[in-house]
Amino acid sequence: xxxxxxxxxxxxxxxxxxxxxxxxxxxxxxxxxxxxxxxxxxxxxxxxxxxxxxxxxxxxxxxxxxxxxxxxxxxxxxxxxxxxxxxxxxxxxxxxxxxxxxxxxxxxxxxxxxxxxxxxxxxxxxxxxxxxxxxxxxxxxxxxxxxxxxxxxxxxxxxxxxxxxxxxxxxxxxxxxxxxxxxxxxxxxxxxx
Length: 193
Known about the structure:
Elements: E1 16-23, E2 41-42, E3 52-62, E4 72-86, H1 92-99, E5 126-134, E6 137-151, E7 164-170, E8 180-183, H2 188-191
Antiparallel strand pairs: 1-2, 1-5, 3-4, 4-7, 5-6, 6-7, 6-8
């Protein structure tokens, strides 16, 4: 009987994590294991649904005359999204993200924050970082150009946590990349077993 190699420390449970947002053009931190410093702003508590990474791809298959199976397939569209629900709805960066406001415009005057929500959405691209933690294991995803392209309904109800559900769509940067990923390298003997 064949022995199947298994290593539980090569599997990741997204037990914890966080997100940060910064102005478009902000470079990723040098150390992927350190908390991002200013101008990165923490998004605070994210719902227990965590982070959902979406892959939406379309393809075109080409089947030659006389065959019933394609002999080539080309990806014609590929979109990467990140969906999560922000629970700290009074955090300035969270309001900024949800309502497409400059965070500097959300400074209180006399203890009150006031802003107008435009009926015409302007582009609001920003840089994003998403961290996923499982004990000592981690993965960091840096999105140099991302924008909130979908916002969920806001429910205010007794016994329910109010949250801002957002979907961030990643766009290619100047190098043509939509994200950069860093993670703790596993021990080589486990991977090659």
